[in-house]
Specification:
The strands form four sheets. Strands 1, 3, 6, 7 and 9 form a five-stranded antiparallel β-sheet that branches. A four-stranded antiparallel β-sheet has the order 2-8-4-5, with no helix packed on it. It has a four-stranded antiparallel β-sheet with strand order 11-10-17-14. The chain has two domains: 2-61 and 194-276, no CATH class; 63-192, Jelly Rolls (Sandwich), CATH 2.60.120. It has 277 residues and is mainly β. It is elongated, with a radius of gyration of 23 Å. It contains three helices and 17 strands. Strand 12 (211-218) and strand 13 (221-226) form a beta hairpin.
């Protein structure tokens, strides 16, 4: 029953991701060669299939925290000017564009656009008096909470963890109350969903997290493109068919999957992939 349910949903996913699938399979060029001895692909072990499938379909989708060296994304002294009383302003946190216009590092801080949260340093400076600032995901109503209370006497800093709006034009909004102030935001780390995918035999995506596109390259060969470079990560693959083994080769943003049957021959089948960095 599981296979039939997957086929129904997988057809829809394959159509929706057709363009992304082509890009995923072709963007990097030729994939790494499969192992000469296909038994090397058995290192993942078919006994891991159930656990990997659960992770790939979102069961227990814990967020991963990635610490970074403090990196500036906002400085209103450099761009944008002071926040007025009762002003709401939205900022980029992830991605590589838009930061110069908000006083941040020109190419961003290496944070994926799909980040779901961030640990930040929030500093008010050159304030006109006493006030407060709240921070919240862009695109929602401002909550009744305070991230930073400041005065005109000195710079004031707090280090909250904030929720972001992944995939939005801008990811974080702040609202300033009572008076004018400059604002500086540095990022200390960010949260992302684990990277995973369930790929059907035609190369379509049945389920996944942080996947840009999927595609079938050849018999038993698939490409899964993620939203960040996974070259230094480990890919763990498996299939629901215990006679099929899966080998994974991460390269840049793409994980290449090679599937082999019990005789060591390439075969098209369902595959479960989890990327661990």
């Amino acid at each position: 029953m599981k296979t039939f349910a997957r086929i129904a949903v997988g057809i829809v996913a394959a159509i929706a991701l057709a363009t992304g699938a082509v890009a995923a399979a072709a963007a990097v060029g030729n994939p790494p060669p499969p192992p000469r001895d296909s038994t090397q692909a058995r290192q993942a072990g078919p006994d891991q299939s159930s656990a990997l499938a659960a992770a790939s379909t979102g069961a227990g989708s814990e967020q991963l925290f990635v610490p970074i060296s403090p990196c500036r994304i906002v400085d209103t002294r450099a761009a944008g000017g002071k926040l007025a009383a009762s002003e709401t302003r939205s900022f980029y946190v992830g991605g590589t564009t838009g930061f110069t216009g908000q006083g941040g590092a020109s190419a961003g801080c290496g944070i994926p656009a799909g980040a779901t949260g961030a640990s930040i340093s929030l500093t008010s400076t050159q304030s006109g008096g006493a006030g407060r600032i709240i921070a919240f995901p862009a695109g929602i109503a401002a909550p009744n909470s305070t991230m930073l209370s400041y005065t005109s006497a000195s710079n004031v800093t707090s280090t909250p963890t904030v929720t972001l709006r992944p995939g939005a034009d801008r990811h974080l909004s702040v609202k300033n109350y009572s008076t004018t102030t400059h604002l500086v935001i540095d990022v200390l780390g960010y949260y992302v969903s684990q990277m995973s995918a369930v790929v059907d035999p035609s190369g379509g995506m049945y389920a996944g997290s942080r996947v840009v596109g999927t595609g079938r390259i050849d018999v038993g060969q698939y490409a899964v493109e993620f939203d960040t470079d996974i070259t230094d990560c480990s890919g763990v693959g498996s299939s629901d068919d215990t006679a099929v083994t899966v080998s994974v080769y991460p390269s840049e943003k793409i994980a290449y999957l090679y599937l082999f049957d019990a005789n060591g021959q390439p075969v098209d089948d369902w595959s479960d992939l989890v990327v661990i960095c």
